[in-house]
Amino acid sequence: MQEDFLHYIWKFQKYDFARAATTAGESVLIQDTGIHNELSGPDFFNSRLKIGEQLWAGNVEIHLKSSDWYLHRHESDESYDNVILHVVWEHDVEIYRADNSPIPTLELKNKVPLEVVEKYELLLSKKARWINCEDSFGKFERFETAHWLERLYFERLEAKSALVSRLLQKTENDWEAVLFQLLAKAFGLNINGESFLSIAQSFDFKIFRRNQGEILKLEAVLMGQAGFLEKECEDIYFQKLKEEYQYLQHKYKMSNAEVIKPKFFRLRPDNFPMIRLAQLAKVYAGTAFLLDRIMGAESIEDFYGIFQVELNAYWSCHYNFGKEHKPKKKRTTWAFIDLILINTIIPFQFAYFKHLGKPVETILELAEKVPAENNTIVAKFNLLKPAVALSSMESQALLQLKKNYCDLNKCLQCELGLKLLQQKTLQSP
């Protein structure tokens, strides 16, 4: 049993009210269960109770056992001084406030209907299931899943905006510099995301801003900071980049000592770091005022127009310096641009709109137009409930659901899990 289950019992009052009494024998009448607190501190704020003949207003703390109060050291934490009721499954010891006054305790073990406990145990029983509710997931109505997935999507955007906030602090609120760093991370994909981010952070973005429009200089900065121009190579294009980089490095006093070296292992040639860095340079060389264009884009086609670039003749014959192959157009694909929109542009817009105090709901329009990601988690959810993820909004929400709820057994914090517990029957797998 988890404390989440006791939170559910208290919040939705799934116990015998007629026998609600403290361990000292005083009756407990609940006027307001309080506000559920999911952060640090007491579990429910601003509860209103009548214990015996006395009305109380304060906080409620919930534990599996009374002794957990001391295990968690609440007796020495001032934030628990205003606890008016200790709700536990099993009462095994008396507890006291810092001033030695006893805290009334409500024991639930013999007051919760057996069917409520059985449904909880059935839902969370581990029987080689991918998610606890996989036998019931496909039976939820469309409006039920849609409502919860929208909430989960914004929850995921909030989490992703934390990186934006950290980068803003480091750049002294330079939104253009933050956009560049996030785009660099996105172009690096999973394998080289952190490496590309370290490259973007290794020099002042003003260097890119001053040389925007000059593709050779932008490529030279990125390739040089990545360490790709340190070797010896007779390739003419390589020599041009190296000469340009050495000039810019001396002029701007750039160092790449702390850059994480890009990897090639298990990458397909189209994702080689040279190609992705060259594409990033091409985006900036071909788009003036990139921040304004991104924030002003009105359709998904506008974004495709910004990020669909084709590399020059040299890169059409090379994946690496000095190694030539048959000509092949190297352009960013729509699928790659979709990943940029999902993982970078939409979270960036979310943070930017919040900063400006603009409504963030409009972001849903773009998220719903970007196709759903194709990965094993999304595919499995689509097997459980066909077409549950058609857009990136839904696929991102499902990733949030699996990682932060299903995998952690947080069924009682999930709208769908709560709905199953509210049903009269819960089908056994």
SSE topology sketch:
Elements lengths: L2 H9 L16 E5 L2 E2 L7 E8 L2 E12 L2 H4 L11 E8 L14 E3 L6 H11 L17 H29 L4 H13 L1 H12 L4 H6 L4 H11 L10 H17 L20 H14 L3 H7 L3 H8 L5 H4 L1 E3 L2 E2 L9 H23 L6 H7 L6 H9 L7 H15 L8 H8 L7
Parallel strand pairs: 4-5, 5-6
Antiparallel strand pairs: 1-3, 2-3, 3-4, 7-8
Helix pairs in contact: 4-14, 4-17, 5-6, 5-14, 8-9, 8-10
Protein name: DUF2851 family protein
Report the mean per-residue pLDDT as an integer.
Answer: 91
The portion of residues forming beta strands comes to: 5-15%
Order of helices and strands: HEEEEHEEHHHHHHHHHHHEEHHHHH
Q: What is the C-alpha radius of gyration, as a whole number of Å?
A: 28 Å
Number of strands: 8
Protein name: DUF2851 family protein
InterPro entries: DUF2851
Tell me what you see in this structure:
Pfam families: DUF2851 (PF11013). The protein is an alpha/beta fold and 429 residues long. It has 3 domains: 3-112, no CATH class; 132-170 and 336-429, no CATH class; 194-332, no CATH class. Helix content is 48%, strand content 10%. Strands 1, 2, 3, 4, 5 and 6 form a 6-stranded mixed beta sheet that branches. A two-stranded antiparallel sheet has the order 7-8.
Short characterization:
Helices cover 48% and strands 10% of the residues.
Features of this protein?
429 residues, alpha/beta, two-stranded antiparallel sheet, 18 helices, 48% helix, 10% strand
